[in-house]
Amino acid sequence: MDGGVGLGLVGGLFCLLAVVVVGWAVVTYNRLVRQRNQVQASWAQIDVQLKRRYDLIPNLVETVKGYAAHERGTLDAVVVARNGAMTATQARIGERAVAEDMLSQALGRLFALAEAYPDLKANQNFAALQGELANTEDKIAYARQFYNSAVQTLNTSVQSLPTNVIAGVGGFRVTEYFEAAGGERGPVQVRF
Questions:
Q1: Assign residue 160 a region: left if phi > 0, alpha if psi is -120 to 50, beta otherwise?
Q2: Are 143 and 42 in contact (CB under 8 A)?
Q3: What are phi and psi of 160, to 5 degrees?
Q4: 3-state secondary structure of 84
Q5: How far apart are CA 97 and CA 88, in angstroms?
Q6: Burial of 79 (0-12, 13-18, 19+ CB in 10 A)
Q7: What is the value of pTM for the model shown?
Q8: 10 Å Cβ neighbour count for 144?
Q9: CB pairs under 8 A, 24+ apart, for 65-69?
Q10: Cis before 162? omega within 30
Q11: For residue 66, what are the contacts with CB-CB under 8 A and spacing of at least 6?
């Protein structure tokens, strides 16, 4: 009788341990799913803002053409960079970041061009578009920050013990950050 009670107790403890382990695995898997979904949702927010930027650029270029038509090289560079960024929407995150950096640099040259044309700088349409674009750039920066925070949370979970066991079985992988490329990392040049 004592052997049967001891065996029953061991069996009960084993069952309890199995239930706890399975419960932990389910909770961990669900947390990983939430984190992955957060990364995907935050990436979608970046995408929305980038598309908004793409939509504003043709209007900006058309406005500048009227005032600075002989600055064709700068205008063409903006158009080429915009097309490259739009094409990169299906690329890896790192490649897309490079394309977006090229577009940001081209836009910077376009805004610098406006300094040389006082009539353009005073144009209400140009000022409104420049303001909208600046607002969109701020939203992109915030969305990138939120995305990278979500990626950090997911990557920490995927790489930490014992969660990495569930992550490996569930097919969760480390996700790439949306990092600033070369020119955005350097110091800002301010000239008066």
A1: beta
A2: yes
A3: -90, 145
A4: helix
A5: 9
A6: middle
A7: 0.79
A8: 22
A9: 67/117, 67/119, 67/120, 67/123, 67/126, 68/113, 68/116, 68/117, 68/120
A10: yes
A11: none
- As a whole number of angstroms, the distance between CA 130 and CA 186 comes to 23
d(CA 35, CA 37): 5
Q: For residue 162, give both structure tokens.
A: 């014992």
Q: Per residue in 15-53, is it b (16+ CB within 10 Å) or e — as a string? A: eeeeeeeeeebeebbeebeebbebbeebbebbeebbeeb
Digit-by-digit pLDDT tens for the chain (192 residues) are 566 777 888 888 999 999 999 999 999 999 999 999 999 999 999 999 999 999 999 988 888 887 776 778 888 889 999 999 999 888 888 889 899 999 999 998 888 887 888 888 778 888 888 899 999 999 999 999 999 999 999 999 999 999 999 999 999 999 999 986 654 444 434 332
The SS3 assignment for 171 reads coil
Helix (H, G, I), strand (E, B) or coil at 181: coil
CB 174 within 8 Å of CB 159: yes
Burial 154-184 (b: 16+ CB within 10 A, else e): bbebbeeeebeebbeeeebeebebbeebeee
